[in-house]
């Protein structure tokens, strides 16, 4: 632990301490961690690790995924966004009704679903170009909006 120099008086900021403080602050977003519910130290550590994994994953997807809004009667997306927050603001401002879906980038949806175990081709036509270009996947993260508000 860093010690304050003897010549220093009052508060002296410690190098790197803000990173630790910020990390503890992030844990406040996880209700289960607000109280000591766990019976063992191992399970408490596991839930803290899960919280940090969740924090990391929440920041990563917007680099590798894009959100697209398909309006109620729209055949193609009416907007594509890298950040969900910007998409939601646009949806709210325009009072759109539709589905905001998180799509993988630089990878076809069919290939993504197969690689992640969400779909397994069982018939020969499942490998055809027609099937692949019309493929949809309910396993994508998606949100429903009605008049600009999330359902």
From TrEMBL:
Keywords: Membrane, Transmembrane, Transmembrane helix. Pfam families: DDE_Tnp_1_2, DUF7710. Coiled coil: none annotated. Residues 13-57 form the Transposase DDE domain. The chain crosses the membrane at residues 40-58. Residues 70-151 form the DUF7710 domain. This is Transposase. The keyword Amino-acid biosynthesis does not apply. InterPro entries: DUF7710, Tnp_DDE_dom. The lineage of its organism: Bacteria, Pseudomonadati, Bacteroidota, Cytophagia, Cytophagales. It comes from Rhodocytophaga aerolata. The keyword Transmembrane helix applies.
């Amino acid at each position: 632990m860093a010690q304050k120099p003897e010549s220093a008086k009052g508060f002296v900021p410690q190098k790197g301490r803000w990173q630790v403080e910020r990390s503890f602050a992030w844990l406040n977003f996880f209700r289960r961690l607000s109280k000591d519910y766990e019976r063992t130290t191992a399970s408490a550590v596991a839930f803290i690790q899960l919280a940090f994994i969740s924090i990391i994953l929440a920041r990563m997807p917007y680099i590798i995924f894009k959100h697209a809004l398909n309006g109620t009667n729209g055949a193609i997306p009416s907007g594509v966004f890298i950040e969900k927050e910007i998409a939601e603001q646009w949806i709210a401002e325009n009072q759109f009704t539709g589905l905001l879906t998180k799509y993988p980038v630089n990878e076809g949806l069919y290939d993504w679903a197969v690689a992640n175990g969400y779909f397994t081709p069982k018939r020969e036509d499942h490998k055809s170009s027609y099937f692949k270009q019309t493929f949809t996947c309910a396993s994508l993260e998606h949100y429903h909006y009605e008049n600009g508000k999330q359902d």
